[in-house]
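In this supplementary section we document a worked example of the pipeline. Step one takes a protein sequence of length 375 as its only input; no multiple sequence alignment statistics are reported here. Step two produces a three-dimensional model, which step three serialises into structure tokens for compact storage. The input and output of this example are shown verbatim.
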Amino acid sequence: MTDKTIYPGLIGQMSKKQRRNLALTSISILLLVAFFYLLQNGFLLDNYGIRIVNLCLIYSLVGISLNLIQGYTGQFSLGSAGFMAIGAYVTTLLALSPEVKDTLFYLDPIVPWLADLHLPFLAALVLGGVLTAAAAFLIGIPVFRLKGDYLSVATLGFSEIIRILFVNLQNVTNGATGLKNIPATVNVWWTGTALILAVLFMVRLFRSSYGRSFKAIRNDEFAAEAIGISLMRHKLLAFCTSAFMAGIAGGLMASVVGTINPALFRQSLSNDILLIIVLGGTGTITGSILGGCIFIIAREALRFLDNGFAIGPVTVPAIAGLRMVFFSLLLMIVVLFFQKGLAGGKEFSWDRLIGFPGRVRKSIQRLLHRGDTNE
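The serialised model returned by step three reads:
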């Protein structure tokens, strides 16, 4: 019995190109699973390399979350650090055992209702995302009743308020000391699965009527409202969904890093996430993943710039923050020459990848033909 007999409505009605793309996607998934297995079992990278991969996946996830509200819905948000902080602290406080909490809160005892509360990591992670979305809902209700760039101002203030609250709530967050000895539950299976689920969700979302409404709001709010799209409801939905994913990313990052404190979630973190979507390209899932991976890898690879280095006979002394100069230059180059980001404002597709050599060959032929014509 053939596949066409078993699935007459699926494979039997697919074109040759669709069957090819399905086969390539299936092979890629199998290779990705094999890559995660080899990576997690230490066949490819050491612990430091695995940590970098995890951070790449986490920052790609939070890049997707910001792209949802900014790239697809057209609302400028600067609160990613605050949302990640809520997710990180809620997940950690719920996942830590009572014994560990007792050793951490030595300056001021933890509140009784939280001292004995202990949940499995997955439940704590999901609850952290839900509470983050709830916080975004409370912010969005008053903000989205206004028009303009009020969201950026509100989320900027919210992020700073959250950080200050976490510093001063000594008996809940352990203040500026933060939380340590966080169980290293998260591995590449966790971060990889979270990113894959986020990508699948985003693809399905943007193929739905909600996704088309988000794009309509981004392109022209007045026209979208004129055709019956509820600006308040759709903006709030995108904002809460974005916050949920940022909260999940924060909870995953807390387990990967092993320790968190309010200083980790300063406004510079929101700026880094904004840099990721600018590098990769706003409005594309591919750009978020590309920007997240480039940012983390470049940030780690360029640490030597802060420690001083030598170029032939010239010795450059150690200058704190010198590597951020490189990121500033990189951002300027992208803005000047890649205004749609490194992904070019387009999503990855097998058709575009397979046709890339042909497009390069045609471009070279046109250049050669132009040169012959000039002669």
